[in-house]
Design goal:
This protein is an alpha/beta fold and 447 residues long. The protein has helices at residues 23-34, 53-61, 75-88, 99-103, 105-111, 124-135, 140-143, 183-189, 210-214, 222-234, 251-263, 281-289, 304-309, 316-328, 346-359, 376-379, 412-426, 431-435, 440-446, and strands at residues 2-7, 38-43, 65-69, 94-97, 117-119, 149-152, 158-160, 192-195, 198-199, 218-219, 239-242, 269-273, 292-300, 332-339, 363-368, 386-387, 406-407. Helices cover 39% and strands 17% of the residues. It binds iron/sulfur cluster. This is Radical SAM protein.
Length: 447
């Protein structure tokens, strides 16, 4: 069977972003090729950044199956593409996988006839089993024995099968097959590429689907990670972003990876996502010594009540200490905050701005609360004092402009104003200089 994966277009210029190949397709490719299938990839951002570009790929390749990833950020674009394909090629089965469809398969299949099959949780085994079944022209009844899929049966009823067993040792999935990507486009655009060396997260934040999707924290061995690093360095990349939701969730593994990087004399700069709780002296020292120059830390809020409510597992005081610790190891700090988090008000956001002025991160970014399907915040926004008027917000584009949820104390327009205010101030390279003199009292309170 010929399988065509599609990386959707963006609704804005993609060349204002970090562009990385969608590695999920590379992992699936390993398994598909083992079973004798051919794998192709249509990277629409590099092909006119328009949904129509997919049609010429289909005309040339004549695929038997088409696969896309469905995440909240790109679901609107995924649907644009699948609707277009169904208009022109109604007989080609279309499969979507990813965290969004995993948690709302009935909603997705009931509302979107352009999607035929969904892959739930880790896709490797389920996707290949599905392609093999399509090749064998399996009946709906036979499809029910494939783990981790959802589909409409011959009566139009949505069938959801139990998930495939969790694979604990991610080395089993191999190094993603990057030969399916047009890497020359990525190399021409940027010297940085992405590796993903773990799935899931040890934390249980109630607004995040990572922990539900990953089911538990699983990772690659240090040897496997360094083999993959060597591979991408040999391809010409010179910087790496570890796109794991939390790269350093296991301190020993992190230190072992750093030791192995140095033992192999691998020279490259890298960044990673990090939980504040994982910022420990021995870990930070090892990371800096192995080329880490920046970490991305989701602070989310500096209100104790909010951190408790969203089960962030930390306190404002600890966040303050960790921010300073990270910087003391000469590692740049990219800090992220939620504006319009449960309990947010004008007062709490003024305090957040003071906090940022004091910790003085290299970069600060701000997002509004976007409750993701499957999470407790999505299922029960009222428990968090949030109002989410449209549970299908992820099907539309409005969420890029309008906050999808708000609090009793902050309207949507007020949240937007706060986000603009934060970006106006903290995207100024001199922001600390302009405020330091006002902050002595606040600083003393945090010290
Ligand atoms: S620490 Fe980050 S990745 Fe982990 S559950 Fe919380 S928000 Fe998600």
């Amino acid at each position: 069977m010929k399988v065509l994966f599609v990386n959707p277009h963006y609704s804005f210029d993609p060349f204002t972003l970090l562009l990385h190949p969608p590695l999920a397709f590379g992992y699936l490719s390993n398994f598909l090729k083992k079973d004798g299938h051919e794998v192709y990839h249509a990277d629409l951002p590099f092909h006119g950044n328009r949904p129509e570009a997919v049609l010429s790929f289909i005309e040339t390749i004549q695929p038997d199956v088409i696969g896309l990833t469905a995440v909240a950020q790109s679901f609107y674009h995924t649907l644009e593409i699948t609707t277009l394909i169904k208009q022109h090629y109604p007989a080609i089965p279309i499969v979507a996988g990813g965290p969004l469809v995993t948690f709302v398969p009935e909603d997705v299949l009931t509302r979107h006839p352009s999607l035929d099959y969904l892959i739930l949780y880790d896709g490797e085994e389920s996707f290949v089993a599905l392609v093999n079944a399509l090749q064998a022209r399996a009946t709906s009844q036979q499809m029910k024995s494939i783990p981790g899929i959802a589909f409409r049966d011959s009566h139009g009823s949505v069938i959801v099968t139990p998930p495939a067993p969790t694979v604990s040792d991610l080395d089993y999935y191999g190094i993603p097959d990057r030969s399916i990507f047009e890497l020359k486009n990525y190399l021409a655009y940027d010297y940085e590429t992405v590796l993903v060396t773990s799935r899931g997260c040890p934390s249980r934040c109630t607004f995040c689907s990572t922990t539900l999707m990953g089911r538990n924290f699983r990772y690659n061995s240090p040897k496997h990670v360094c083999d993959e690093i060597e591979q991408v360095l040999n391809m010409g990349f010179s910087s790496i972003f570890f796109g794991d939701d939390t790269f350093s969730g296991n301190s020993k593994r992190t230190i072992d990876i750093c030791t192995e990087i140095n033992a192999r004399s691998l020279k490259f700069n890298w960044t990673s996502n990090m939980r504040a709780i994982d910022a420990k002296p021995d870990v930070l020292e090892a990371m800096r010594g192995a080329g880490a120059y920046r970490v991305f830390v989701g602070f989310e809020s500096i209100q104790n009540s909010t951190l408790k409510l969203i089960k962030k597992g930390t306190t404002p005081e600890r966040l303050f200490q960790k921010a300073n610790l990270i910087k003391s190891y000469d590692i740049e700090l990219h800090s992220a905050f939620i504006i319009g988090a449960p309990g947010d008000s004008d007062v709490s956001l003024r305090e957040t701005m003071d906090f940022i002025r004091i910790i003085n991160p290299t970069v600060a970014t701000f997002n509004c609360m976007e409750p993701r399907p499957g999470t407790d915040v999505y299922n029960h926004p009222e428990r968090y004092g949030l109002i989410m008027p449209d549970k299908y917000w992820y099907e539309k584009l409005d969420w890029m402009e309008e906050p999808v949820s708000y609090t009793a104390d902050l309207s949507r327009s007020e949240i937007k104003q706060w986000i603009n205010r934060c970006y106006d101030e903290f995207c100024s390279p001199t922001f600390l200089d302009t405020h330091t003199n006002d902050l002595e009292m606040v600083k003393a309170a945090w010290a």
